[in-house]
Specification:
single chain, 1 helix, 77% helix
Length: 52
């Protein structure tokens, strides 16, 4: 990559922004999954369901 090119800053910023967005999306998905699994366990416990 030619770092002396006029658009190099734009390319680097675009990659950085993409990394931030994908990292945030991944964190959101993992946290939501953890929350939903906890809610499912709680509901199964209230129902008295012993299935795995």
């Amino acid at each position: 990559m030619d770092f002396a090119a006029a658009h190099a800053g734009f390319v680097i910023a675009a990659y950085g922004l993409s990394l931030v967005v994908l990292g945030g999306l991944s964190a959101h998905i993992l946290l939501r999954d953890r929350r939903l699994r906890a809610a499912a366990r709680r509901l199964d416990g209230e129902r008295g369901d012993t299935r795995a």
